[in-house]
Automatic annotation (TrEMBL), chain A:
Pfam families: PP-binding (PF00550). This is Act minimal PKS acyl carrier protein. Residues 5-82 form the Carrier domain. SUPFAM superfamilies: ACP-like. The keyword Phosphoprotein applies. It comes from Actinopolyspora biskrensis. Keywords: Phosphopantetheine, Phosphoprotein. InterPro entries: ACP-like_sf, PP-bd_ACP, Ppantetheine_attach_site.
From TrEMBL, chain B:
PROSITE patterns: KS3_2. Belongs to the thiolase-like superfamily. Beta-ketoacyl-ACP synthases family. GO terms for biological process: fatty acid elongation. It comes from Actinopolyspora biskrensis. GO terms for cellular component: cytosol. Keywords: Acyltransferase, Transferase. The lineage of its organism: Bacteria, Bacillati, Actinomycetota, Actinomycetes, Actinopolysporales. This is Act minimal PKS ketosynthase (KS/KS alpha). InterPro entries: Beta-ketoacyl_synthase, Ketoacyl_synth_C, Ketoacyl_synth_N, PKS_Beta-ketoAc_synthase_dom, Thiolase-like. Its EC number is 2.3.1.-, 2.3.1.235.
From TrEMBL, chain C:
This is Act minimal PKS chain-length factor (CLF/KS beta). Gene3D superfamilies: 3.40.47.10. The keyword Transferase applies. Pfam families: ketoacyl-synt, Ketoacyl-synt_C. GO terms for molecular function: 3-oxoacyl-[acyl-carrier-protein] synthase activity. It comes from Actinopolyspora biskrensis. Keywords: Acyltransferase, Transferase.
Length: 82, 422, 405
């Protein structure tokens, strides 16, 4: 685990680059507990997100974590070693 | 016209041995041809296993200019075509070039050739503006994979309708289905049809790594492809080609040709759900199976063997099991189902045709190939998957299916040519 | 015989017009979309002209989340499909999902997407390759994405036969309809205008080395020196006539009346090229004689040898100066698998409006003896039109469309 903590804003940027944003969806601290599915991200999008997190932040997520974290909070917690 | 289409010649290049005989021997012995990748250095990759063919075009009679201009996938297709033509006994003078067509299925075309040439013109990715001075003259053939159909046609002298059929991993079924339609509607009398793919290259491995579709079981390559097993962890990339000579039954009989099997029915449907994901209920595949059976005038209970897609990914094997139950009803629990991908890997667009070959050979030999590496079935995969050992049994009608990225779901029914009265 | 198969909707993304209306008015006015490549800097390459689709802003038409997973040409295809479906008045939700299929043509898939990922692979490493590379570049991508976007679960697929593909896909759509499906979204939208695609196209040896937009692509002209490539194409809604009537669509563009496809013999064989047979097959399939064909939309390769073959087929079957011949693709460049699909749209609009669109910049060479419609459109009562398409590697296809009864 690298020292750098990944925030919801970082995640928002990665999500947007990896899979766009559905119209009408605003990702921020309010959506920490909204399920990715509801935010418009499927498992494929989350695999793309996981790849980007690994490249940019050096955090490797194991196979299931990337797609089993159902909300931004759970994903951030996995990434930040929570 | 209401013509019946039969297979009168077959050529298979699959991992574990070249030629139809070697292929069938591998399958019936339940041996696997998966190994650590040797075509490139796989160390940086998540999945380092593949089912490769020890293939050298020159050893199969390809001339230096042919091996230079043809991508590996094209070479496989042309060599498989030659075997099929010889096998069919269809001599040059016996067929009308104008009434002979070609369809070749391929998911990724000349992907190996493209990657090799890209590395040169870009100097290993140095510049977005690649250097045309380093482009080889046959690069266009790699750009547009219809060149594969051209090479196959020119290798046998066919001048009827020709095309590459590309629908991801169902291409090998769809190509043969397309060819059958051309014969049935009377456009052609003979089709050289089948499929090829040679995708074992860094770009393919990298993209399947990224979606975790291929297995990371790198310490145990021979047992890495584990369809329907509880420990399965993704598919094993493969390569291969299978080509057939298809004719209408009447003219095949007239010339006294040996008939492997009849293509009795075929259908494809699309899940319109996700480019890579599958809906758990298997509805669209079940629909394709239903229509294919219907086209062949068969009931589910007529099916003696199901040649499964059985890729060995978590989602596929469950999806497919659900589709069999949905389309075959109670018979799904009684009919043997197996996946040859456990032995020869998943050659993307080619595998559908390779599996048609396995299905026809099952009919021809009254033997059902096994699913290798199946020791502890996934509780959600609760059918008879013919674990480990081939089974001798009367096999008159076979269902073979495919499922692919893009949502494509295809099904084909083959029967012994004597199955239906004319 | 089954009910006629008809074209009930069209959607166009062409270099000289985004949308059917823009395309058709530009085409009748002789406005070309060929210009210097803007998608990358073409300065270092011998050929620098292309037909690029103007004014296309994908997020104006498509959900933003589709953007990262699609190549440029797939976005064009999705929008063309939306337009074709709307034009036909089809509401997919109201029809049976298994009765709607998608069969498109492709030549090189999402090549620019693939180019970017190859660069990621080679310059940065395998872990930099996108998850979407697993499908965004492959040949079946447009069919898959169109089926998902519109909930179409019927028989679907992709035909690759270089520039003949646009017709071969529509023929396959007709086949599926004759087997019982009600409608198929078909045609082709293509494009590989990225440096890697460009270099691969140049290797084919048929790109014009002339970089004057008005002199570069001159089929049937004594200065013919190859073609200008382009991007875009057309999506067509192909439908069973009775099914269209049932849903209240009486107004159709044209019937897909005849089709034929052949492959040339290998070079140097001394055997006759296959184009004539393709035309003859299409005529026979449509049960029409050459005298009943009112216009020919030529393949127009602009390679002298290929122009000669095409001109000979036309004059031998239709007579010298025997039928109006045109090549509106002189205004778009050749669009690979999108080329013939777009010509098919031009043909059905020509039938609808009673006008043959022009071939621009060309003064037909007299030795071809073709009645080439040059300069300005020609009013004509068109009942039946034929579209010809050829692909590198010897592919020949011919399709006949005619005014509905």
């Amino acid at each position: 685990m690298s020292g750098q903590e990944i925030t919801i804003d970082d995640l928002k940027r990665v999500l947007t680059e990896a899979a766009g944003v559905e119209d009408g969806v605003e990702i921020g601290s309010d959506s920490l507990d909204t399920e990715f599915e509801e935010l418009g991200y499927d498992s494929l999008a989350l695999l793309e997100v996981a790849g980007r997190i690994q490249r940019e932040y050096g955090v490797e997520l194991d196979d299931d974590t990337a797609t089993s974290a159902r909300t931004p909070r759970l994903l951030l917690s996995a990434v930040n070693g929570g | 016209m209401n013509r019946r289409v039969v297979i009168t010649g077959m050529g298979v290049l699959a991992p574990g041995g070249t030629g139809t005989k070697a292929f069938w021997k591998l399958l019936t012995e339940g041996r696997t041809a998966t190994r650590r990748i040797s075509l490139f250095d796989p160390s940086p990759f998540r999945s380092q296993v593949a089912a490769e063919i020890d293939f050298d075009g020159a050893e199969h009679g390809l001339k230096p200019q042919e091996t230079r201009r043809m991508d590996r996938a094209t070479q496989l297709a042309v060599v498989a075509t030659r075997e099929a033509m010889t096998d069919s006994g269809l001599e040059d003078r016996e067929f009308d070039p104008h009434r002979t067509g070609v369809t070749v299925g391929s998911a990724v075309g000349a992907t190996m050739g493209l990657e090799q040439e890209y590395r040169v013109v870009s100097n290993d990715g140095d510049s977005w503006l690649v250097d045309h001075e380093y482009a080889v003259p046959h690069l266009y053939n790699h750009l547009v994979p219809s060149s594969i159909a051209t090479e196959v046609a020119w290798s046998v002298g066919a001048e009827g309708a020709a095309a590459v059929v590309s629908a991801g991993c169902t291409s090998g079924l769809d190509s043969v289905g397309y060819a059958c339609d051309l014969i049935r509607e009377g456009t052609t009398d003979v089709m050289i049809a089948g499929a090829t793919d040679a995708p074992i290259s860094p770009i393919t491995s990298a993209c399947f790594d990224a979606i975790k579709a291929t297995t990371p079981r790198n310490d145990d390559p021979e047992h890495a492809s584990r369809p329907f097993d509880g420990t399965r962890s993704g598919f094993v990339l493969g390569e291969g080609a299978a080509m057939f000579v298809l004719e209408d039954l009447e003219s095949a009989r007239r010339r006294g040709a040996t008939v492997y099997a009849e293509i009795a029915g075929y259908a494809s449907r699309c899940n319109a759900f996700h480019m890579t994901g599958l809906r758990a209920d298997g509805r669209e595949m079940a629909e394709a199976v239903r229509i294919a059976l219907n086209e062949g005038g068969l009931d589910p209970t007529d099916i003696d063997y199901v040649n499964a897609h059985g890729s060995g990914t978590k989602q596929n094997d469950r999806h497919e099991t659900a589709a069999f139950k949905r389309s075959l009803g109670e018979h799904a629990y009684r009919v043997p189902v197996s996946s040859i991908k456990s032995m020869v890997g998943h050659s993307l667009g080619a595998i559908g045709s390779v599996e048609i070959a396995a299905s026809a050979l099952a009919i021809d030999n009254d033997v059902v190939p096994p699913t290798a590496n199946l020791h502890e079935p996934d509780p959600e995969c609760d059918l008879d998957y013919v674990p480990l050992t081939a089974r001798e049994q009367r096999t008159r009608a076979v269902l073979t299916v495919g499922s692919g990225f893009g949502g494509f779901q295809s099904a084909m029914v083959l029967t012994g040519a004597d199955r239906r009265s004319s | 015989m089954s009910a006629p198969v008809v074209i009930t909707g069209v959607g166009v993304t062409a270099p000289n017009g985004l949308g059917t209306r823009d395309y058709w008015s530009a085409t009748l006015e002789g406005r070309s979309g060929i210009d210097v490549v803007s998608r990358f800097d073409p300065e270092q390459y011998p050929s620098r002209l292309a037909g690029e689709v103007p004014g296309f802003e994908p997020t104006e038409h498509l959900p933003r989340k589709l953007i990262p997973q699609t190549d440029h040409m797939t976005r064009l295809a999705l929008v063309a499909a939306d337009w074709a479906i709307a034009d036909a008045g089809v509401v997919p939700e109201e029809l049976s999902e298994f009765d709607m299929g998608v069969v498109t043509a492709s030549s090189s898939g999402g090549f620019e997407f693939g180019h970017r990922e190859l660069q990621n692979l080679c310059a940065k490493g395998n872990e930099y390759v996108s998850a979407y590379q697993s499908f965004a570049w492959f040949y079946a991508v447009n069919t898959g994405q169109i089926s998902i976007r519109n909930g179409m679960r019927g028989p679907s697929g992709v035909v690759v036969s270089d520039q003949a593909g646009g017709l071969d896909a529509v023929a396959q759509a007709r086949r599926q309809i004759r087997k019982g499906v009600e409608l198929v979204v078909s045609g082709g939208v293509d494009g590989s205008i990225c440096p890697w695609g460009w270099v691969a196209q140049m290797a084919g040896g048929r790109l014009s080395p002339v970089n004057d937009a008005e002199r570069a692509y001159l089929p049937f002209d004594s200065e013919a020196a190859g073609h200008v490539p382009g991007e875009g194409g057309a999506i067509l809604l192909v439908e069973d006539r009775e099914a269209a009537r049932r849903r209240g669509a009486d107004d159709v563009y044209a019937e897909v009346a005849g089709y034929g496809a052949t492959l040339d013999p290998p070079p140097g064989s001394g055997r006759e090229p296959g184009l004539r047979r393709a035309v003859e097959l299409a005529l026979r399939d449509a049960s029409v004689g050459p005298d009943e064909v009112d216009a020919v939309f030529a393949d127009a390769a602009a390679v002298p040898e290929l122009d000669r073959v095409e001109a000979e087929v036309i004059t031998e079957l239709f007579g010298e100066y025997g039928v109006p011949v045109t090549a509106p693709k002189t205004m778009t460049g050749r669009l690979y698998s999108g080329a013939a699909a777009l010509d098919l749209v031009a043909a059905v609009l020509a039938i609808r409006d009673g006008v043959v669109p022009p071939t621009v910049n060309v003064s037909g060479a007299p030795e071809y003896a073709l009645d080439l419609v040059v300069g300005s459109p020609r009013a004509a009562d068109l009942g039946t039109a034929m579209v010809l398409a050829r692909g590198q590697g010897g592919f020949n296809s011919a399709m006949i469309v005619r005014r509905p009864d």
